[in-house]
């Protein structure tokens, strides 16, 4: 089973965009978020997914969408508790 948090294991400390990451996990888990190629990237760069890091962030989001909803919901709880989000 894939986990949306597997890619965050390498982080040391709190990433500056951790609230954006939590929001994406939560919205997608609720089934009401679909990012488009021209939407502003979640990393906070101000660029669209298409331009941000040559589209690598959009490719990561496409992989993220493959994670099961139940897993995302569980991951959000872990993520929110770890960084005291709410």
- Radius of gyration from CA coordinates: 12 Å
Number of strands: 0
How would you describe the oligomerization state of the chains in this entry?
A: single chain
**Shape category:** globular
Unreliable sequence segments: none
Overall pLDDT level: 73
How helical, in percent, are the residues?
40-55%
By DSSP (H or I, 4+ residues per run), the number of helices equals 3
Query: SSE order in H/E notation?
Result: HHH
Sheet of most strands = none
- Strand content bin: under 5%
Structural class: mainly alpha
Distance between the termini: 26 Å
In a nutshell, what does this entry contain?
The protein is mostly helical. The chain has three helices and no strands. It has a domain of 53 residues.
Structure description:
The chain has 86 residues and is an all-alpha fold. It has a domain at 34-86. It is 42% helix and 0% strand. The protein is built from 3 helices and no strands. The longest helix is centred in the last third of the chain and has 14 residues, at 69-82. The model has no long low-confidence stretch (mean pLDDT 73).
Summary tags:
mainly alpha
What's the layout of helices and strands?
Layout: H1 18-30, H2 56-64, H3 69-82
Protein name: SEC-C domain-containing protein
Organism: Maribellus comscasis
Pfam families: SEC-C
């Amino acid at each position: 089973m894939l986990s949306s948090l597997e890619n965050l294991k390498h982080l040391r400390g709190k990433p500056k965009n951790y609230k954006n990451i939590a929001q994406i996990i939560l919205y997608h888990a609720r089934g009401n978020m679909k990012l488009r190629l021209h939407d502003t990237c979640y990393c906070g760069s101000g660029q669209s997914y298409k331009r941000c890091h040559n589209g690598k962030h959009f490719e990561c989001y496409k992989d993220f969408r493959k994670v099961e909803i139940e897993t995302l919901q569980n991951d959000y709880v872990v993520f929110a508790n770890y960084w005291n989000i709410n």
